[in-house]
Amino acid sequence: MNELKEKAKELLQNGTVKVIIGFAQGTIPNRTKPFIVRSVEDAEKLVFNKYCVNNLAMYLTRKEFKRNGVVGIVAKGCDVKAIVQLIQENQVKKDDVYIIGMNCSGVVSELGEEFNESTVATKCLHCMVHTPHLHHTLLGSLEETPKREDKNFVLMQKIDSMTAEERFDFWEAEFERCVKCYACRQACPMCYCEKCIADKSIPRWIESSAHTRGNFAWNMIRAFHLAGRCVGCNECERACPAEIPLSLLNRKMGMTANKEFDYIPGMNLNTPTLVGTYDVNDREDFIK
Amino acid sequence: MEEKKFEPKIAAFVCNWCTYTGADLAGTSRLKYAPNIKMIRVPCTGRIDPVFIIKAFEKGADGVLISGCHPNDCHYNTGNFHARRRWILFKELLDFVGIDSTRLHFSWVSASEGKKFVDVVTEVVETVKNQGKFEKYAKINEEFFIHE
Q1: Do the Cβ atoms of A213 and B58 come within 8 Å?
Q2: What global pTM score does this model have?
């Protein structure tokens, strides 16, 4: 990945950016960590490979990055989707971000594992943006993405075929494990609210204790607040210590947005956001 | 002894400008409707956060009715259009987590449609009565030992 290091050095030297968010080698093999480059020497440590799973767009909305002026970011296609969505929502200025687009043919699903056919992440199976659709520089080369069965989708079809009671039981068993650590919220590039509805206490809409009742409310509201916004990076599910299949909820919302409104989040800078706008001809056959 | 009939609890979120006034008209016209409806007045259907609906079910509602101005009649011009788009997404989510979205009813009732309001309420109460108590969520409530 010498071209990435060279590019980073060049950007820092000519003053285009003061800081670059990228990946560095982790403490064990097959593992990388987010890495903030502030000096030319640090740029030497940048890496990009199959184990660069994190969605670094999450950092862009954080206050400590906003005061850096133009921020450089090493981004895969899915990260660029998140960046585009953030620009659409006016959270990041288009001129305040310098995207070092990386051609990506898939990443590993769980850090630490060897990248191969069986461990390629679910999101990569249907990826439309192996080459980032918005970038200032494009680096890297494409290989063929490994193919495997989409177990996530099979599970979703299984849930769809259940009765309402069975579905409730399924989710009750899943949400029961939720400990309300809000790791899903912290990892999500789209969860940037200064004050989350889960933290509001007057009135308290979502119970703060990790009881199944409040867990239902929290997980549903989280999924709903991401409806038509979630770019499917699956960072929430990866961050979840209880291994709740959060991607199912997000994916369901994404599929509904696509089916009903023909909308895919994070693809076009110039379209308005899905729930931020409306169409007078929206479906209303369910309204008496 | 006659068995006690099931009386559903239904939360109704209604918009101040149309349905609430419509319900008022039903009252002043001396029209009767089922008392199972607990009405909650909100400024506009656009004000109805899905978290309200979740809260209603969480607190033991057997059904929820949401009603507001007809399209193009919104007091704030676009509130109901925004709300409608949200409901399309939210209904799908409710169904997916196993809260039967047929327990969630929507209607447009204008300020002059007192009769329509009565019809809608009667229909909703009948439907929810036939569906029976919404037990799944209530069961979680029971095992929750801290009472607010």
Answers
A1: yes
A2: 0.91
